[in-house]
């Protein structure tokens, strides 16, 4: 007779339907803080214009809510394709680009490598760890530029998976030289990597890497409605890719994932891109105004930024964070990240918020 192991009791083997990789990840550590000036999530400081909200609401009211939306968001993919002057078959849209990052890890990362810089956008590493991909990080150069040689070495040394190039970079706000981006993207593509150029903040930088997407085989650009467009609450992100790659990715997107509410708002926004451009222009001007106002600070330094946020280096991050809170401002601490000792990440707000921010920074010792 064979011995059956006990299914319960102290000698039973520990079993769980929840994978170890998932249990190892701490719950997402974000606690909203209720203060007047919310500069901690890189959001656009302005709500969607009221007249456009009205238009979107009319669309919603005219549409039957008992019917399923498009299976693969075809109406919205066409609208984005027209806006971007791109083939609709090369557009994939999900509720926020964070969902695309999960899908990209499923596409090329599980059991393979996810390569990015250190520091980087936390969602890339989180999804890689959760889905059991091998994570390879190349340290950013001290001036926050892309470590080109180390990246080329890492691309060659590992089985191809997913490679993230964030342009402009988060959380540093730095934009790399186009020739450096081109070099790593071309090599990665030749070696078979799926190369993701995350352009969440490209409107603020005035950059656009679509030429590398067009020239490559497995290169794509990740874009979002959460930042320049100011629609973080609606949840919509998309990618531009070759139709062949987009087709593979689309298989991983659940059916009916874009609901009609999201579709109605984004269609309305795309009909009025001028509101977005005006806000981006104001954000850039306000960023310059803040930099100008604090540039002679005796103990704090701002790092150049090409986005709607920036890093402020302070002598004591904990004290400075609490000082800003006392002035009604919440920002994000980044001082535990590699190479970002003493750094706080602060979003550019509306002018009155930036006035408060400038006063608070100038009062900081
Ligand atoms: C904000 C941000 C995104 C966008 O995320 P959504 O899920 O679309 O809101 C993507 N990448 C980076 C680097 C970001 O900072």
UniProtKB/TrEMBL annotation:
<protein>
    <recommendedName>
        <fullName>Histidinol-phosphate aminotransferase</fullName>
        <ecNumber>2.6.1.9</ecNumber>
    </recommendedName>
</protein>
<keyword id="KW-0663">Pyridoxal phosphate</keyword>
<keyword id="KW-0368">Histidine biosynthesis</keyword>
<dbReference type="GO" id="GO:0030170">
    <property type="term" value="F:pyridoxal phosphate binding"/>
</dbReference>
<dbReference type="InterPro" id="IPR005861">
    <property type="entry name" value="HisP_aminotrans"/>
</dbReference>
<comment type="pathway">
    <text>Amino-acid biosynthesis; L-histidine biosynthesis; L-histidine from 5-phospho-alpha-D-ribose 1-diphosphate: step 7/9.</text>
</comment>
<dbReference type="InterPro" id="IPR015422">
    <property type="entry name" value="PyrdxlP-dep_Trfase_small"/>
</dbReference>
<dbReference type="GO" id="GO:0004400">
    <property type="term" value="F:histidinol-phosphate transaminase activity"/>
</dbReference>
<keyword id="KW-0032">Aminotransferase</keyword>
<keyword id="KW-0028">Amino-acid biosynthesis</keyword>
<dbReference type="InterPro" id="IPR001917">
    <property type="entry name" value="Aminotrans_II_pyridoxalP_BS"/>
</dbReference>
<dbReference type="Pfam" id="PF00155">
    <property type="entry name" value="Aminotran_1_2"/>
</dbReference>
<dbReference type="GO" id="GO:0000105">
    <property type="term" value="P:L-histidine biosynthetic process"/>
</dbReference>
<dbReference type="InterPro" id="IPR015421">
    <property type="entry name" value="PyrdxlP-dep_Trfase_major"/>
</dbReference>
<comment type="similarity">
    <text>Belongs to the class-II pyridoxal-phosphate-dependent aminotransferase family. Histidinol-phosphate aminotransferase subfamily.</text>
</comment>
<keyword id="KW-0808">Transferase</keyword>
<feature type="modified residue" description="N6-(pyridoxal phosphate)lysine">
    <location>
        <position position="227"/>
    </location>
</feature>
<dbReference type="InterPro" id="IPR015424">
    <property type="entry name" value="PyrdxlP-dep_Trfase"/>
</dbReference>
<comment type="subunit">
    <text>Homodimer.</text>
</comment>
<dbReference type="InterPro" id="IPR004839">
    <property type="entry name" value="Aminotransferase_I/II_large"/>
</dbReference>
<feature type="domain" description="Aminotransferase class I/classII large">
    <location>
        <begin position="38"/>
        <end position="361"/>
    </location>
</feature>
